[in-house]
Amino acid sequence: MQHLSSMDRARTALERGERVPMATLSPVVAESWQRCREFGLDPRSVPRQNVIAFSQVKDRRESNAALRRLALAEMQLLYSQIAGSNFMIALGDADGIVLDTISDQHFADSAPGRSIIPGSIWDERQRGTNALGLAAMYHKPIAIYGREHYFGCHGHLSCMAAPILNSRGETLGLLDASCAHEARQEHTHALVRMAAAQIENGLIFQECSESFIFAFHPRMEYLDTMSAGLISVAEDGAIISLNRPGITLLTGLPAVIGGHFDQLFEAGFGAAMDGLLNGGVIRIRDHAGSALFMVCRQIGSRKELAQRGATKRPVATPPIVQSRNEPGFVCDDPAMQRSMRDIEEATVLRMPVHITGETGTGKDVMARYVHRLSGRKGEYVALNCGAVPENLFIAEMFGHERGAFTNARAEGSPGLARSADRGTLFLDEIADIPLAAQTSLLRFLDSMEVRAVGANKTYKVDVQIVSATNRDLQEMVAQRTFRADLYYRLKAFTIRLPALRARADFAEVVRYVIGELSPDTPITDAAIVALARHSWPGNIRELRTALQRALIRRRMEYVDESCFSEIETLSDDEQDSCEHCRPHPLSRTKCREIRSVFRATDGNTSKTARQLGLSRTTVYKHVL
């Protein structure tokens, strides 16, 4: 509590323009606050957002191509390691200008997330006390927690940044993680420092591909860790590069680029090479008398093997055991969560479940989840109602006896309904069921009794019915192309799957799909923004195809916005309109207002309707 009260006093003094008790702050923060005052920055205001042109971002990315390639891979790994949500990982260049970000959608949609974008400048003079700017200034890892930020509007954030250095101690780039102030800050800071060190090591392997690279450490079991020193030497023993742990381990010795192996270690370069090239670990002393273990990590002719070993860090991944209640797909969208509520209870009551949504929204995936949630021991049996000829539908559904009709199977068939006994029968494209067969299906739903074509005996079955369609069954009922009684029987419990373009968890869906296609491939926030501007008439199915194309066409180990240059984008007002209003400019304004209020009320249809003076049906029409 004493620390908190000290910070309160410091903040109050800062914002009132009084003398700040600097002793209560860390030296880095105290010095930064003083400089920010001298710059004339008002801690109570919102900092001016300065973003360079995208053409300049591209130029900076190209000039840092090697760094960016390694950094994006580490950012993806860091993204998977940071627990919880509401965080962003950013890569900056040596000037503190952001090149790429990878974040969860909650942070990306927040005010800080919208300000940490490619091209944004994070120097202290404009943004006040912040980790990215200070790490660039001090050339060392910096963490700024909560109210240590100069601007009060950043007080709910914690930012941790680490410089990425070359062997001369020069900053090549910056790695930053920004998250909610309540997050596990020290743990995150450690992960950021480790990721920066891994990038530095990767650059040594990448830039010294024709040279020898040796790892060394006083303890042999540490040779494969981030604390091991790395030294790159030419064929004549000249030092080409050293990593930071290596420089630290050789403190007091001439460990400099251009020096020689023999100036550091008592064993001559030739004698050390004889042992190292045999593939073993040698024991060696430096000229300060310290004993070290050393092993060869790269021989120039084995360039590709060494690079793979340097840039890909093994990560122990425990097998994923999926519980019955875990959906196994992304469902963070509020409208989708509300629609899915109480599924388990519905299956306990044996209520038919009806799934609606546009083509490609994942109706089959949802049907399989309903089956798993029901806990039934029988099979999951699917039937595409539109793919079965009308004259064969009843036989396919309920089975037939041997020779019951022309072209009948010689051995007969039990039918799909009996195959699904004690399990789930999924009737996909239910709108395409032949009108003549609808009566038989309704009778089956009422009695759960099956009689095969050409048979006299009936069988009682226990089946969970799940149906799905992308068509408007209510309209079909009005047009008398679908039986009203069957419609009401099927829609006992309805799950509405939103279109991909309308989903609040769009970014998570993209990351999930690309994770299925290529688990180790990073995708940047800028790429997701580009994807979000497409209308996605084919929904997740179309998204999967677009990501597959991007993975084939990419020229690097990551996916960024340049991989989607052929995707047709929507204007801002088109993007935030429903499918029916999008073609009509006069309707889009009202639609955008409804959708905006719907999001502001956390997807509460009743509140949205009350605030706008509309019916719930009208709100549903625009948001689902």
**Total number of helical segments?**
27
Gyration radius (Cα, Å) is 31 Å
Distance between the termini: 48 Å
Helical fraction:
40-55%
Secondary structure: number of strands = 17
> Could you state the oligomeric state of the chains shown?
single chain
Largest sheet: 5 strands, antiparallel
Bulk shape = globular
Mean pLDDT: 86
Strand order, largest beta sheet: 2-1-5-4-3
Unreliable spans: 302-321
Strand content is 5-15%
What structural category do the secondary elements indicate?
A: alpha+beta
Observed structural traits:
624 residues, alpha+beta, five-stranded antiparallel β-sheet, 27 helices
Structure report:
The protein has 27 helices and 17 strands. It has a five-stranded antiparallel β-sheet, sandwiched between helices. It has a five-stranded antiparallel β-sheet with strand order 8-7-6-10-9, with helices on both faces. A five-stranded parallel β-sheet has the order 12-13-16-11-17. It is globular.
Task: Give a short summary of the structure.
The chain has 27 helices and 17 strands.
Q: How is the secondary structure organized here?
A:
Blueprint lengths: L1 H15 L10 H12 L15 H10 L1 H17 L5 E7 L4 E6 L1 H4 L2 H5 L8 H4 L3 H8 L3 E4 L11 E9 L5 E10 L4 H23 L4 E6 L11 E5 L5 E4 L1 H6 L19 H8 L5 E4 L5 E8 L4 H9 L22 H7 L2 H6 L4 E4 L6 H12 L5 E5 L8 H6 L17 H4 L4 E5 L6 H13 L1 E3 L6 E3 L3 E6 L3 H6 L5 H7 L2 E4 L9 H12 L7 H8 L6 H15 L18 H4 L9 H16 L4 H8 L3 H8 L1
